[in-house]
Hints:
The complex is a heterodimer. By secondary structure, chain A is mainly alpha-helical. In chain A, 75% of the residues lie in helices and 3% in strands.
Amino acid sequence: xxxxxxxxxxxxxxxxxxxxxxxxxxxxxxxxxxxxxxxxxxxxxxxxxxxxxxxxxxxxxxxxxxxxxxxxxxxxxxxxxxxxxxxxxxxxxxxxxxxxxxxxxxxxxxxxxxxxxxxxxxxxxxxxxxxxxxxxxxxxxxxxxxxxxxxxxxxxxxxxxxxxxxxxxxxxxxxxxxxxxxxxxxxxxxxxxxxxxxxxxxxxxxxxxxxxxxxxxxxxxxxxxxxxxxxxxxxxxxxxxxxxxxxxxxxxxxxxxxxxxxxxxxxxxxxxxxxxxxxxxxxxxxxxxxxxxxxxxxxxxxxxxxxxxx
Amino acid sequence: xxxxxxxxxxxxxxxxxxxxxxxxxxxxxxxxxxxxxxxxxxxxxxxxxxxxxxxxxxxxxxxxxxxxxxxxxxxxxxxxxxxxxxxxxxxxxxxxxxxxxxxxxxxxxxxxxxxxxxxxxxxxxxxxxxxxxxxxxxxxxxxxxxxxxxxxxxxxxxxxxxxxxxxxxxxxxxxxxxxxxxxxxxxxxxxxxxxxxxxxxxxxxxxxxxxxxxxxxxxxxxxxxxxxxxxxxxxxxxxxxxxxxxxxxxxxxxxxxxxxxxxxxxxxxxxxxxxxxxxxxxxxxxxxxxxxxxxxxx
Lengths: 310, 298
């Protein structure tokens, strides 16, 4: 029930956002929100900490930029190509990473992502440290000009909703239940006859694909694929967003992405202090606020309900 | 390609390898007892280098203290200071996370990394500041018979090897080391025998941190001192740790050295792959020996 109300709030806020905020900024937040939701599927529901999700986010951005700029693909096909690339990459990385567990899983994903980072730095088509520039926004279906920020905005919002819907379905399905069982007790899930590795891989691939979709969309919005989005610090940022909003909650990552995104934006004039502040938020969250905003609210509500029952 | 080129790259590779070895050794020691991966290990390495730099060049300018801490003194001061920071981090924060999922330790130390990096990036150039304090006795080159090699680098290699093997000897062959290993094997039982396990944990974390700080001081005269010097290194060291497996102390040392050599050789034969070769080796190890070369599956 409360999920439905939250969803309606999000829908209305999303549809009316361009009326009172700068559309490009909101689009950026939406990309990060989708990225964080995708990440949350893996960490919040399957309990797998990937420290390399920037590889999918940034990698897909480069591919999308390349095919729209050099091959003349339209924006939608471009995003789909980038997303498809993230799917393939996610499958390969996933197959390797699920061979190790826990903390090793995090280190393996981080190291694999570093390969993509160096490829993005060194390959001839990526523009090195300058990133891939002058990606055309193009026209949607051949007649809607995306250089109009409003048209672009509603496309981005639609893409966000599709991604969000896929994640919501995945979580509220038998598949999602099994994932949570694996998170709680992997050996028990295994002994109940579930092919644990298969489920982990599926979760990894879905998460990587949607992270790629977010990155691909971002490349179109800003007409630019940056090296920063493939850097490990971006992987860290998405973890922070998810943590702040609430691990394993539906709307937490969205809220977290908006909070952290707006914060970095507001503080951008302070230079390296932004990093210090993000670091402090990280430490505070881990030490005292592990449920995140939404998680904490849900926890309080649940306790209240129990109190009134008793 | 002459044999000289290969040999000199091998030695340079070994030079990088000793840093890998020292850092992965510290990570392995900490992981053994605390079961956490210290993401801030790279930041502590950076901190060691900065303590040496500040001690040499900025004490008077910043704090009005007319004192200069030279290279040799830095080799002692920096590890102690970084170790103290380790004590503070362990006592005030990490300690509260032991009962939780291990990933929280990783996330906490990641946050600490951002703080340290951001702080230094505010005051120092990201592209690096040279460390001017290299002692005269270590400047110049030595004739190794088949080639000339910078004296300082040779010193760094020998010194790090001595530190690594001393650590190994201490843990594997002394009374105190055996208590440490008992703590790794079964903390509760060790505590029941009257050993102060929490103190051991704190000191172990401080020791690992100090080792990273020491590596930072040694690296300062070779690479310029930069806020990001640890960040790029730590990810490679993670790959080294995955390849070696964290089962043994000697394994951490040997895989660090070997992978430094491999990287050096790649620079000779196919330079563009030099900064990714270790990651690709990690992929191979994951495919054929997922527990790592020296690791035991837990």
